[in-house]
UniProtKB/TrEMBL annotation:
<feature type="binding site">
    <location>
        <position position="88"/>
    </location>
    <ligand>
        <name>substrate</name>
    </ligand>
</feature>
<feature type="binding site">
    <location>
        <position position="75"/>
    </location>
    <ligand>
        <name>substrate</name>
    </ligand>
</feature>
<keyword id="KW-0028">Amino-acid biosynthesis</keyword>
<dbReference type="Pfam" id="PF01220">
    <property type="entry name" value="DHquinase_II"/>
</dbReference>
<dbReference type="InterPro" id="IPR018509">
    <property type="entry name" value="DHquinase_II_CS"/>
</dbReference>
<dbReference type="InterPro" id="IPR001874">
    <property type="entry name" value="DHquinase_II"/>
</dbReference>
<keyword id="KW-0057">Aromatic amino acid biosynthesis</keyword>
<comment type="similarity">
    <text>Belongs to the type-II 3-dehydroquinase family.</text>
</comment>
<dbReference type="GO" id="GO:0009073">
    <property type="term" value="P:aromatic amino acid family biosynthetic process"/>
</dbReference>
<dbReference type="GO" id="GO:0019631">
    <property type="term" value="P:quinate catabolic process"/>
</dbReference>
<dbReference type="GO" id="GO:0003855">
    <property type="term" value="F:3-dehydroquinate dehydratase activity"/>
</dbReference>
<comment type="function">
    <text>Catalyzes a trans-dehydration via an enolate intermediate.</text>
</comment>
<feature type="binding site">
    <location>
        <position position="81"/>
    </location>
    <ligand>
        <name>substrate</name>
    </ligand>
</feature>
<dbReference type="InterPro" id="IPR036441">
    <property type="entry name" value="DHquinase_II_sf"/>
</dbReference>
<feature type="active site" description="Proton acceptor">
    <location>
        <position position="19"/>
    </location>
</feature>
<comment type="subunit">
    <text>Homododecamer.</text>
</comment>
<feature type="site" description="Transition state stabilizer">
    <location>
        <position position="14"/>
    </location>
</feature>
Length: 150
């Protein structure tokens, strides 16, 4: 599962100097290709609403527990820096999450330097552009291969 938070529907037109020219549809295609390379089906979602993301994380936790999901790539956008609720959902659902940022949040405004998600995530990828999504999917696949449940 790949979850994208607020304003990521604006990729391609929103601050291309920071986020690049790729659209969210481009990112979905990249993720679909990366998933296919690892034998995964893709569930790709975007929402500007925190509660929708929470529900998706709960759903993902149940799917992972049932052996139907390798984990979640989560680009929570600005919710990364504000949402204790997303942190709690990840922990409460016991879902494996790779936190992802297209830009290097640590080279940006100071308020972007803190993540409420990182302490609950398996790993964090930041600043590698949209290719970070493929790397995050590969990391989930590698984790599954090491644990015999890819």
């Amino acid at each position: 599962m790949v979850l994208n938070g607020p304003n990521l529907n604006l990729l391609g037109s929103r601050e291309p100097g920071i986020y690049g020219a790729h659209t969210l549809a481009d990112v979905e295609g990249l993720c679909r290709d990366a998933c296919a390379r690892h034998g995964f089906a893709l569930d790709f979602r975007q929402s500007n609403h925190e509660g929708v993301l929470l529900d998706a994380l709960h759903e993902a936790g149940a799917a992972q527990a049932a052996g139907m999901l390798a984990g979640v790539v989560l680009n929570a956008g600005a919710y990364t820096h504000t949402s204790v609720a997303l942190h709690d959902a990840i922990k409460g659902a016991s879902v494996r999450v790779i936190e992802l940022h297209i830009s290097n949040v640590h080279a940006r405004e100071p308020f972007r330097h803190h993540s409420f998600i990182a302490p609950a995530a398996q790993g964090v990828i930041a600043g590698l552009g949209v290719q970070g999504y493929a790397l995050a999917i590969a990391a989930l696949a590698d984790h599954g291969n090491r644990n015999g449940n890819a």
